[in-house]
Amino acid sequence: MTQYAIETPPVVALPVAGQDTLFPVRRIYCIGRNYAAHAIEMGHDPDREDPFFFQKNPNNLTTSDTFPYPPHTSDVHHEAEMLVALKTGGTNIPVSSALDHVFGYGLALDMTRRDLQGIAKKAGRPWEIGKAFEQSAPCGPIHTVEKVGHLDQGRVELKVNDEVRQEGDLNQMIWKVPEMISYLSEYFELAPGDVILSGTPSGVGPVVKGDKMELSIDGLGSLSVVVG
Predict the structure, then answer these.
(1) Which residues of 170-198 are buried (b: 16+ CB within 10 A; e: fewer)?
(2) What's the CATH number for 13-227?
(3) In terms of Cα–Cα distance, which of 150, 169, 135, 164 is closest to 65?
(4) What single string gives the DSSP state of each residue in the chain?
(5) What pTM did the predictor assign?
(6) CA-CA distance, 57 to 164, in Å (whole number)?
(7) Domain boundaries in the chain?
(8) What value does the mean pLDDT take over residues 56-77?
């Protein structure tokens, strides 16, 4: 029996809708500026270019209905995303077979310390301080492909205090799910438990303590989170 020098960290896992099982998470890849309107609102050219990704940590995921406002920031933004969970992986995966690796889909919020991210951008530094903080990715359960199919269209909506802030459609993604999987597999060896956050529509903006965020995507239900 292996003896570890310290207490082993817990396995990070997400619930699976309709099952008593959990989906263990290995890595989280987040694509940036994957909706043209969001690219424009962030000051970038929406023309299709090679995708780029940043990472959150598995233990940034949370299924709590409360998002704790993080320290050292006064400008925390919501970003509504679809989560893609992989059951298998590999390298150099063809676009034509990429969806065979998908276990299911879910709802996620890529919460962002926008002020700290902006400072990092200007300094040419990594974004983790703005993106990969504790509980920065509230999530709902994963819905299996067998239940919901493969989602390539459907309304994406995020409300804050019952006011629509973000709205779009999955068919507006610049890089579709099969393309994201294929591209990532050229640079990383993907594996079971990997998760991809597929980008956010336009309308990102700040939240304050007490705000109620409600994310919905057609076919995946809704996710309600209060800023605590």
Answers:
(1) bebbbbbbbebbbbbbeeeebeebbbbbb
(2) 3.90.850.10
(3) 135
(4) ----SSPPPPPPEEEBTTSS-EEE---EEEESS-BHHHHHHTT---S-----EEEE-GGGEE--SEEPPPSS-S-EEE-EEEEEEES--BSS--GGGGGGGEEEEEEEE--EEHHHHHHHHHHT--SHHHHSSTT-EEB-PBEEHHHH---S--EEEEEETTEEEEEEEGGGBSS-HHHHHHHHHHHS-B-TT-EEE----S--EEE-TT-EEEEEETTS-EEEEEE-
(5) 0.94
(6) 29
(7) 13-227
(8) 98
181-220 pLDDT, tens digit per residue, is 999 999 999 999 999 999 999 999 999 999 999 999 999 9
Length of the chain: 228
